[in-house]
Amino acid sequence: MTLPVKMSLSPEQIARALASPCPLEGMPVCQGKLTQAAVLIPLIRRAESWEVLFTRRTDSVENHKGQVAFPGGAVEEQDRTPEEAALREAWEEIGLPPESVQVLGRLPRLSTITGYCVTPVVGEIVQPVTFHPAPAEVSRVFQVPLVWLADHRNWEWRWYTRLNGTADWVIFYQPYEGETIWGVTAMILHSFLCAIGWMNPAPPPVNHS
Fold it and tell me: In the chain, at which end, N or C, are there fewer CB atoms within 10 A of the end residue's CB?
């Protein structure tokens, strides 16, 4: 269910909301030996509204080929925090300078089927930036209005069967300018929308018929 949207939501309000994020039913919890990773949810303020920046991965990357994603990757030895890892990856993938991002907070960690434990980091892009996608990793950088992403008419749960034969309920958005946001990226997005009070996400269906 979409909740009343406060178009003038400030960065300070977002930061306060992220300090006590709401639990999201169906979020895959990190358990066991997983590779630590971090992603950046880059926010751009347009007058009184917000947009979210996404990338589309190339078909040559190791995981999630051709899928819409947030900038991010595995935490490396030099990264002291998930924030440092997320900002480093954003610089390497799309040329977003770390000094152009004001970190607002984190979301709860979640696991992926590819063996990662991901910490989502939320940050506002506070300076004008010209993006330079890494050709081997990113085929496109684009933005979607946050109010569109919060609208329950634009997404649904679908029963999805993977190439390895496993299946479960997965969030799929309607295409936006030819791009489809789904899977872990959509789950992270819903966690953020829940945290800021813009969405009360419906849990996945109990059964598949």
Answer: C
